[in-house]
Design goal:
Shape: globular
Largest sheet: 6 strands, parallel
Bound molecules: NADP nicotinamide-adenine-dinucleotide phosphate
Radius of gyration: 19 Å
CATH architecture of the largest domain: 3-Layer(aba) Sandwich
């Protein structure tokens, strides 16, 4: 069994990005700049945004953090996005989700300029992904694709089962694995809460990608020998064994499943760190006008 070490791979990619930024700086080019907008004081969102801003600083990007109160009017948030859209120094923008109930996430996402939508959530970027046109791809599935590439995992003709059909993970993941070329050319089954006999579908998977948010759902008997297992899930549970009193669990029962696998991601340290470097990569692409010139 080989551990898919997202922590190690992501730190290699960060070094590659930092080297590119150093080159840009040397030649007097435009330094990539990410703006992050956070609404309210949700603890998890604060942590995610702080990690993203810190990652920008580490690779030498510029970053702007815009904080808005939880009771901000939708119009004020949309105006903030318009300002960022019009600011030529800012290459990419993310709005941390979820937003308070009185604000329409759809409206907010659609307001972001497609060229600056480095989260890849705008319908135009999603649509372009579906028809094989260059686009910003949602960070988590993009990070998984990068991990598969870096470990040279064979995907052509394989049966890939994706558990979970969210817009930001499961659905784009299924599309990426079914795309022509490498990584891709897989035969994909996309499962959700209404799927019948999920266990036998999982057992038929050469590559099993799990993004449900159901701690330790996938057990040893659901995985065939030699499978590649990628665990996206993160659930925080109480623990007496850690200093903080909390630990993170994936959607896969690691101890049971790992001995059967050819490759498996740990939680934490697998998919999570790859998500942030994908965002950095998208911001670098936005700055270099690689996708939309
Ligand atoms: P989500 O929007 O809540 O979607 C969950 C999906 O799982 C839904 O499609 C749901 O089916 C399906 N599902 C739930 N219970 C199921 C069951 N018992 N059997 C079959 N399908 C079931 O979740 P998400 O945003 O994709 O996130 C999934 C997990 O990944 C979460 O733990 C999240 O924290 C984690 N995550 C991690 C990263 C990272 O960087 N590591 C990034 C994003 C998300 P229905 O559609 O039928 O309801």
């Amino acid at each position: 069994m080989i551990l898919l070490d997202g922590k190690k791979v992501s730190s290699e990619i960060r070094e590659e990005i930092a080297a590119k930024v150093a080159e840009i700086r040397k030649s007097g080019g435009k330094i990539p700049h990410l703006a992050a907008v956070i609404v309210g004081n949700d603890g998890a969102s604060e942590t995610y945004v702080a990690h993203k801003v810190k990652a920008c600083k580490q690779v030498g990007f510029g970053s702007t953090l815009v904080r808005l109160e939880a009771d901000v009017k939708e119009k004020e948030l949309l105006d903030t996005i318009d300002d960022i859209n019009g600011n030529d120094d800012i290459d990419g923008v993310i709005v941390q989700l979820p937003l308070p109930d009185h604000i329409s996430e759809e409206k907010v996402i659609e307001r972001i300029k497609v060229e600056k939508d480095v989260d890849g959530f705008h319908p135009v970027n999603v649509g372009r992904l579906f028809i094989d046109q260059p686009s910003y791809v949602s960070a988590t599935p993009n990070g998984i694709i990068e991990l598969i590439k870096r470990y040279n995992i064979e995907t052509s003709g394989k049966h890939c089962v994706v558990l979970g059909r969210s817009n930001i993970v499961g659905k784009p993941m299924a599309v990426l694995m079914a795309r022509k070329g490498y990584p891709g050319d897989a035969t994909v089954t996309l499962c959700h809460s209404r799927t019948k006999d999920i266990e036998s579908l999982c057992r038929s998977a050469d590559i099993l990608i799990v993004a449900m948010g159901r701690a330790e759902f996938v057990t040893g008997k659901m995985v065939k020998d030699g499978a590649v297992v990628i665990d996206v899930g993160i659930t925080r549970v109480k623990s007496k064994k850690t200093k903080s009193g909390w630990k993170l669990l994936g959607d896969v029962k690691f101890d049971e499943v790992a001995p059967k696998c050819s490759y498996i991601t740990p939680v934490p340290g697998g998919v999570g760190p790859m998500t942030i470097v994908s965002l950095l990569n998208n911001t670098l692409k936005a700055s270099g006008k690689e996708i939309y010139s």
